[in-house]
Amino acid sequence: MQGARGMMRFAATKAATKERKIETLAESPLLFMPLSSYHGHFAHPIVQAGDRVLKHQLIAEAGDPFSAHVHAPVSGHIVGMQDFLDRDEGMAASMLVLQNDFEGACIDIPEVPPSDPPPETILKLLAEAGVVGAGGAQFPAALKYRTAGHHVNAFILNGVECEPYLTADYALMREQTAALFEGIRLINTLLLAIEVVIVIESDNPELEAAFAPYLVQERYAGYRVQAVKDAYPQGSERQVVHAVTGREMAHPVHPSVEGFVVSNAGTVVAAYRALADRLPVVKRVLTISGEGVRQAGNYEVPIGTPVGFLLSQLDISPDRHTIVLGGPMMGRHVTDWSSPVTKGSGGVLVLPCAPVKRENCIACDRCIEACPVRLMPLKYDEGWRRNDPGMLKRHHLHVCIECGACEHVCPANVPLMASIRAGKARLRQEGEP
After folding, report:
1. Could you tell me which residues come within 8 angstroms of residue 75 by beta carbon, excluding any fewer than 6 positions away?
2. Does the reported pTM lie above 0.90?
3. pLDDT tens digits, residue range 319-362?
4. 300 forms bridges with which residues in the sheet?
5. Helical H segments across 277-415, by residue range
6. Per-residue three-class SS string for 258-294
């Protein structure tokens, strides 16, 4: 169902996992460690085939400020490098292959001083731990929080998990509330935001009850919770800022320029682990759900776990379904079962197979009506098919937030998101931002 322009409401799809506690599955014998993070920026391996590594050991260093360190989630041996084809972007992504020895031998974790780390140390620790945005884009947290000398009006915890099926952030906020609040507090010792706002969906009032014992504590003085309507793409950064402040920021104005810093729950909990426990990001919570899943739930899994291995643990045959890594709107179809869980993977979905044909567009304009940033998605499919970067530029492809609303409403099942991602990759190859 579609409401206001670009805002949709979906039939309830979260009931199968919303009340499920976070569980674990068996570890995979092989892990495929992604080296790319934000928009194709890569880390550089510092290990080679045959090396034995320990759990939490640094195995790849950030190559630039937009990439992130990579750490071993298990102990074992480096098998080598392997390239995976990203069909959406039409490019190969390199990964380190790690063979699990199931010994769990770990590096020494340094003792943590009792006092809060100073601001520059916070940034250093976040970078060293490889903390990135857990909501999908994987933008480095240390870069996002580097606001020295800048006025921060609000630090917004984005607890709006608006894609269908996904409940991983909800489970984190409900079960790891203490880590969430301490993560917010530690980050805000750096940001010094005037206010802290925790944004949740109006369909989750029970979270307010979970937060209540923390909101009355002096260390969290001034924090407030704001419930927003359960609609898609309400969890997008600009939409969350608009819901909290009433200010609508059109591209290229970024919320940070206006003094708003937005982070999702998974990012903040990972930051807490890095600052309070000195632990790098080697695992994450994701939702495994969909019509083809009998044991749907929220699972904490090591980064690099192959999607095929996860499905095998739940006795799911991927050949009879469409497998999506991420959410149904912004996620990516998986055809290689070695495709791994990344730091930005919020879910693995098992959905009915749906035939799609790129040439099926009937120019009905429904994708235009659905776009929350008032773009013309059908032109991106046309521009991609014609190999016409000029068309992509003229229709402002760089402004697209990749919410997937256009593809969702398309009556012809045109894979618009594949065209959008491939088009952006093409423009980046030509030096476009």
Report:
1. 52, 53, 54, 55, 100, 101, 103, 104, 105, 106
2. no
3. 778 888 998 888 888 888 889 999 999 999 998 776 555 567 77
4. 24, 285
5. 307-313, 366-370, 377-385, 389-394, 405-409
6. HCEEEEEHHHHHHHHHHHHCCCCCCEEEEEEECCCCC
